[in-house]
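My main concern about presentation is that the manuscript never shows what a single data entry looks like. Each protein is reduced to its one-letter sequence and a matching series of backbone shape codes. For the editor and my fellow referees, an illustration may be useful. For illustration, here is how one protein appears when written out as sequence plus structure tokens:
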Amino acid sequence: QVQLVESGGGLVQPGGSLRLSCAASGSINSINVMAWYRQAPGMQRERVAAIVSGSGANYADSVKGRFTISRDNAKNTVYLQMNSLKPEDTGVYYCNAVAPPGYRYWGQGTQVTVSS
């Protein structure tokens, strides 16, 4: 089992920045993918960034050049640095972990609102 706890959401003006954190605990050595998803009201959950062990990071086209995912193994924490935020980035952001042979774990979500 893996437990994930997100933090760092909030209200920010367009053009601003936020950093989300996801602290992992439990069977973390089994994890091979850590990702951030978001879900806007009335929309499907979408993956915005992922970091794959041994393979690096990948991003949704909508956030490339603005968001950066990183991992601090010493703290068992994954971050999502979000810059140049836009109103369309508004949503609940969820941390996700994947471990073989297909176990998926989710955090409780943190709200990000981009509005003036």
